């Protein structure tokens, strides 16, 4: 674990070499802005139907740290859907995300055809909990 942590710490530290003097202070002045219609669309409440549509587009994948798969959500959707919405509404009102939305797990996948004795030949992916992926899938 120490070797893996050191490898990725050094890898990502290399890309962060710009000083404050090199940062473009005008970047956000020239960045495209959302129009009022888009802002309102993003701010509107999520309906049960929208959440169900978002959930139906989720493909079975590895679960996050809580270990709860999409199969569990599918089986108990009629019970869980409303709780996911209520949790999201609470988060929007309070500005506090539920702990399950803050948990992530890092997993290393082997790169095909590479020497797997070298850490550089493993690809890191981040696994988040399915409840978080469902809510962020709403558009």
Describe this structure as you would to a colleague.
The protein has 139 residues and is mainly alpha-helical. It has helices spanning 2-14, 36-43, 48-56, 70-75, 77-94, 99-102, 130-136; strands spanning 104-110, 122-128. The chain has one domain (2-12, 46-136). A two-stranded antiparallel sheet has the order 1-2. The longest helix is centred in the middle third of the chain and has 18 residues, at 77-94. It is extended.
Overall average residue pLDDT: 86
Count of helical segments? 7
Which strand order does the major sheet show?
1-2
Helix content: 40-55%
The low-pLDDT segments are none
Q: What is the first-to-last residue Cα distance?
A: 38 Å
Oligomeric state of the chains?
Answer: single chain
| Structural class by sheet pairing and helices | mainly alpha
Overall domain count? 1
Helix and strand run: HHHHHHEEH
Radius of gyration: 20 Å
Q: Main sheet, how many strands, which sense, barrel?
A: 2 strands, antiparallel
Strand content: 5-15%
């Amino acid at each position: 674990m120490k070797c893996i942590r050191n490898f990725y710490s050094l890898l990502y530290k290399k890309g962060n070499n710009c000083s404050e003097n090199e940062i473009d202070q005008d970047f956000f002045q020239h960045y495209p802005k959302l129009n009022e219609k888009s802002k309102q669309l993003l701010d509107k409440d999520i309906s049960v139907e929208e959440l169900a549509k978002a959930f139906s587009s989720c493909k079975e994948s590895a679960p996050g740290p809580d270990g709860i798969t999409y199969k569990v959500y599918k089986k108990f959707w009629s019970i869980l859907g409303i709780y996911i919405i209520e949790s999201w509404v609470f988060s929007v009102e309070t500005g506090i995300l539920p702990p399950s939305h803050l948990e992530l797990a890092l997993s290393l996948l082997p790169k095909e055809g590479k020497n797997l004795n070298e850490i550089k030949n493993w690809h890191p992916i981040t696994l988040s909990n399915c409840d978080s992926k469902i809510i962020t899938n709403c558009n």
